[in-house]
Amino acid sequence: MTMSSEHQGTNLLRVVSDGARVRRAAGRIDDIHDALGTALRRAVPFLGRRGSAVRVTGASPEPIDEALETLPRPWFVLPLTCAPSTAAGALAFDGDAVALILDGLLGGDGQSPPALSPDGLTGAQQALVARLGAGIVSGFSEVLARLGVTVGVESPAA
């Protein structure tokens, strides 16, 4: 699933997986796209404060490694569990989304997001994005449960 900010004109995140149940659920995203947008706005309140519109632009399951190859760095990935399937999944933020997220979390106005090193994020940056990502995953899981799919952040020990 790709979601984008109309205000910024960039993709904010993609959820990818290649499990059969997830593929079927992806085909039904049109039924719940408004609810997914609402879940994202609840998890990322600064989008509303900035007047950013959120829209679901489509869903297409794909292998995680292929999806990551297309993302501008530094990307951030939260590994996901998917139930009842055993399919692997991920919530991936590209470098532009990470910069917008950090700017928003730190009170910026979205006009000048921080320049990030393509070599990777600092530990503090990772922690901030992971915390926000977990909130997004929780909101998405509530919505996806309508399709019989739940997602969660994979434990670090897994």
Name some characteristics of this structure.
158 residues, alpha+beta, 6 helices, globular, disordered N terminus
Short characterization:
Helix 2 crosses helix 6 and helix 5 (about 95-105) crosses helix 6 (about 125-145). The radius of gyration is 15 Å and the shape is globular. The two termini are about 25 Å apart.
Architecture blueprint of SSEs:
Elements: E1 2-5, E2 10-17, H1 20-26, H2 29-43, H3 46-49, E3 54-58, H4 64-69, E4 76-83, E5 88-93, H5 95-105, H6 123-144, E6 150-153
Q: How far apart lie the N and C ends?
A: 24 Å
Number of DSSP helices?
6
Total count of strands: 6
Major β-sheet annotation: 6 strands, antiparallel
| Widest β-sheet, arrangement of strands | 3-1-2-5-4-6
Low-confidence stretches: 1-10
Query: What is the rounded Rg?
Result: 15 Å
Oligomer: single chain
Query: Level of helix content?
Result: 40-55%
Listing every helix as H and every strand as E from the N terminus to the C terminus, the arrangement reads EEHHHEHEEHHE
Question: How big a fraction of the residues is strand?
Answer: 15-25%
- Global morphology: globular
Computed structural class: alpha+beta
Mean pLDDT: 79
